[in-house]
Amino acid sequence: MAAPEPPGTDSASAAASERRPSVIVSGVDVTYRVQGAKKAVASVEEDDESLFRGLFRRGRDLATMQTVEAVKDVSFVAYHGESIGIIGRNGSGKSTLLRAIAGLIPPTKGQIWISGEPSLLGVNAVLMSKLTGERNIYVGGQALGLSRAQVRARFEDIVEFSGIGEAVHRPMQTYSSGQAARLRFAISTAAAPDILMIDEALATGDADFKERSAARVAEIREQASTVFLVSHSNATVRDLCNRALWMEKGVLLADGPAEEVVAAYEATLPKKKPPAKPKTPPSAPSPTIPPAPKDA
Ligand SMILES: Nc1ncnc2c1ncn2[C@@H]1O[C@H](COP(=O)(O)OP(=O)(O)OP(=O)(O)O)[C@@H](O)[C@H]1O
């Protein structure tokens, strides 16, 4: 009798054995420590008293350390060839999780193993706003492991893909957020990275750019890389991802097929009100209907 297939696999067990992990996140916490303000006082008397105490302490104790638990006990395994959307409300820990996977923030607890080089690290860490787009293409391309000659060979493609045209000769600080995001995306994907991480970059492009970037993400997936995409656009996650992670207050609430997880997330969002009908201005003349022509 054939052994039962493990749950969560596509069909045959042969396919399951081909799944190679690219990222393993195990029990990860990320806690920020921030200097917070003193607590608000309850009454005028207390206020005077605390002011008096504060003067004698020379303000030393007025600032308190606060902690923000941005990611709490998150675990999952990502595989080569997957495109994983990270969804959730503002402040739910999506970008922090991505930055931790990219190695930009150390986890406070738990461990992250990565097979390969994540590209968010390579490009975003090195691009410099004072340098022109052209210089940044070289700096970013080399940070991804390309030689100068390889960057030169791909230069035109990168500029064309980003659609920034002549702006490539201007400093990046003069770019619109959309232009900068498109150039970052074009550089990040110039060398098929082992792990591509996209944080909202696609949200800023126009329809044409979105279509082209979707095609490029698909190409990268085909080369057995892993793509992570943080997005507030549920449509983008549905289009580009086969799997989704739903973060809520730092906790991984759901992990599964993108369509199912996005649908479950959407069900918790407030329903959008239909747009209000425009009011007819009181002075506007009422439409007149011409009399129907009489038959000749
Ligand atoms: N550098 C930081 N220092 C302190 N707290 C931070 C820092 N960065 C993020 N946080 C806090 O950590 C929590 C998670 O933030 P994060 O940016 O990861 O959420 P997000 O889901 O990506 O949000 P958004 O959708 O708004 O971009 C929030 O409470 C945020 O205020």
UniProtKB/TrEMBL annotation:
PROSITE patterns reported for this sequence: ABC_TRANSPORTER_1 (PS00211), ABC_TRANSPORTER_2 (PS50893)
Signal peptide limits: none
Coiled coil: none
Keywords of this entry: ATP-binding, Nucleotide-binding, Transport
InterPro entries, per the entry: AAA+_ATPase, ABC_transporter-like_ATP-bd, ABC_transporter-like_CS, ABC_transpr_TagH-like, Bact_Polysacc_Export_ATP-bd, P-loop_NTPase
Molecular function, one GO term: ATP binding
Span of domain ABC transporter: 50-274
Region Disordered, annotated ranges: 1-20, 270-296
Pfam family, one: ABC_tran
Domain of life: Bacteria
Pro residues biased stretches: 277-296
Record-stated family: Belongs to the ABC transporter superfamily.
Name this protein carries in UniProt: ABC transporter ATP-binding protein
